[in-house]
TrEMBL record:
Protein name per its UniProtKB record: Sulfotransferase family protein
InterPro entries: P-loop_NTPase, Sulfotransferase
Species annotation: Caulobacter zeae
GO MF annotations in UniProt: sulfotransferase activity
GO annotation, cellular component aspect: membrane
Length: 227
């Protein structure tokens, strides 16, 4: 029976969190990670053997297929998340979605100057869209979706912040007692992630233009977590 669904937003320490959950709950209790899709009944059935469903699942699918499960998620500063996603794609390559192909063929400044349609899937307010709608829905009212994303946060029994993950992880035992005393052993860093290189203010402004709603949602999470 599914106890919890972890709404894994890309580049929010998901690999590390899944490994940590496996150490606390057992390898067989946590589903393999999976990508964003419009989930089918057959796919949902295959996941019902796990105690925790962990993947890039949108809240609409989580509520449809696992209505009685607790919701958990983690968020990240939107600009840092987008920078990490770009470096990840450049480092390892992933499926040929428009934003992926654009990242592989454009340098960082040019990529974050592209139109919203090109970068929509993983860059444009991805956190709000995954928590407030279905991430593959391209006909989305962002203000309504933002309000629904905040409502999702109200429902979540645990919210982590990548920037304070070890601290936030101590609260996880409140809802999953098996996690008591289980520490985050490492914070996964993308190979080739040149996070130490300076990022210009202009580039940060470019990224922020794609993430007005994500910025507001992240600020809301920081307030909820007491700063």
């Amino acid at each position: 029976m599914v106890r919890a669904v972890f709404l894994h937003i890309p580049k929010t320490a998901g690999t590390s969190l899944r490994e940590t959950l496996c150490r606390g709950l057992g390898e067989d209790a946590v589903s393999p990670a999976f990508g964003a899709s419009e989930m089918t009944e057959a796919e949902a059935d295959a996941l019902r053997r796990y105690s925790v469903v962990f993947g890039h699942i949108s809240v609409t699918d989580a509520r449809r297929f696992f209505p009685d499960a607790m919701l958990l998620t983690a968020v990240r500063d939107p600009t840092e998340r987008c920078l990490s996603w770009y470096r990840f794609v450049r480092s390892v390559g992933v499926p040929p979605y428009p934003d992926v192909m654009a990242a592989l063929s454009h340098d960082i400044d040019d990529f974050f100057s592209l139109d919203v349609e090109t970068v929509f899937r993983n860059i444009y307010n991805r956190q709000v869209r995954q928590l407030g709608d279905h991430v593959l829905n391209t006909n989305v009212d962002m203000q309504d979706t933002f309000e629904r994303a905040k409502a999702t946060l109200d429902e979540c029994v645990w919210i982590g912040r990548q920037e304070a993950m070890q601290e936030d992880l101590t609260r996880l035992a409140d809802v999953l007692p098996e996690m008591a005393g289980v520490n985050l052993s490492r914070l996964n860093v993308t190979a080739g992630d040149h996070a130490g290189r300076p990022v210009s203010d202009e580039l940060r402004r470019k990224i922020a233009r794609y993430n007005e709603f994500d910025e507001a949602l992240y600020a809301d999470v920081v307030r909820r977590c007491g700063g």
